[in-house]
Amino acid sequence: MSPTVDELRNDIRTAVGRYERVEKTGFTKESLQAIAVALGYLSESSPRPSKAQMRSGIRWRIGERSDDDPDGGRSGFTKDELRAILTKVRERAEG
Question: Who wins on pLDDT, 77 or 23?
C-alpha cells in the first residue's frame, strides 16, 4: 500500500531533522525552511522568505516549476510532489 500524504509529510519532516506530527497538518514555516535548506534552495543563514516563496522554490528544486516565482503557485503540495521532495531530500543526504 502506498504511503498517505500525512505519512509522506512526516517522512520528509524526519529526513530534514524536524519532528513528526501526530495531527494532520501541512508544513509549518520552519519545516518548509528546513526542506528548502535540505534541497539547496536556501542556506542555513538565509532570512526566511514567505511560505509561498519557499513552496515555489521547493517545487523549482524538484523540477516541478521552471522558476521560483511564487505568483500563480498552489498552496499545498500534491502527493506526487511530496514523493519527489522525499526522494530529492534523501538523494542529497546520501550524496
Answer: 77
